[in-house]
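Repro:
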Amino acid sequence: MEHDLGWMLFTGQALGMHSGQARELGIFWLRRATERNHTYAKWRLEERGLSLSESRPRTIEDVLHADSVWAALSMLVQIVQGRTGL
């Protein structure tokens, strides 16, 4: 799920989020997916010349701002509904 959420954010599919903030948050989640050995997430980052890791450890609190919480949660619900057919 980290990959799906990261890619949706990175590509600007987050409604109600500033595009720069969504892109940064998307990169965060794509990197987390690579930590779980998600090869497609790794490929997406490498293809765009983005580092697979950061120079310093970051937490979700570093990139997630209060106004983007609902947008991210909404996208997670969409992902889960798409996978389960609900």
